[in-house]
Amino acid sequence: MSADKFTIVFVGDSVTDCGRRSDDRSPLGDGYVSLLAEKLLARDENSVIVNAGINGNRSQDLAGRWEADVMDHGPSLVSILIGVNDTWRRFDRDDPTTAVAFEANCRSMLERTLERENTKVVLVEPFLLPVSPEQTAWLGDLEAKVAVVRALAAEYGTSLLPAHAFLTEAAAVHGPEALAPDGVHPSAHGHRILADKWLELMS
């Protein structure tokens, strides 16, 4: 990287947020973003790391706040992790987000981001590590959204972090509860895997 400021915006839901808006937490939260910031700032002290995750967000919420919370930072790189709440709300509130609507929301975010010259994108697969039979029934809905993310990454030529794939593999070894006690929110171990894989992808 050059001596110029290189701004990385991580955006998404509670998996990214990780308490970053709490008075007693770091503005980067205490999850994978803070782990990555430590490594990224050690490599280049001119980097600027922004956590724009908000607990409970779905793709439509992200798209609605895109300009103010992402583009106004003048990002050099945007890392997007969204989708599990688009699935979850179908089952706990009978408020589904179809794969078509999810794709439209993600496409809107991508197109607005890539209009900015030299801005790169990392699309992170949403993931679910079922810890109950009820959550296992969510997988069909979630995997349709994973397929959308993979297809958009190929179409737009962005980087793709296959989080659902590698965390599912890790859960087969360690058990899903060890990586995400409630099936959705990563443990410290889960966040470490996510951060390590992100760094590996972007190194």
Molecular structure report:
The protein has 203 residues and is α/β, with parallel strands linked by helices. The chain has a single domain, classed as Rossmann fold (3-Layer(aba) Sandwich), CATH 3.40.50.1110. Helix content is 51%, strand content 13%. It has 11 helices and 5 strands, in the order βααβααβααβααβααα. The chain has helices at residues 14-17, 32-43, 59-64, 66-69, 84-92, 99-114, 133-136, 139-156, 163-174, 176-179, 188-202; strands spanning 6-12, 47-53, 77-81, 120-124, 159-161. The chain has a 5-stranded parallel beta sheet with strand order 2-1-3-4-5, with helices on both faces. It is globular, with a radius of gyration of 16 Å. The termini are close together. The model has no long low-confidence stretch (mean pLDDT 96).
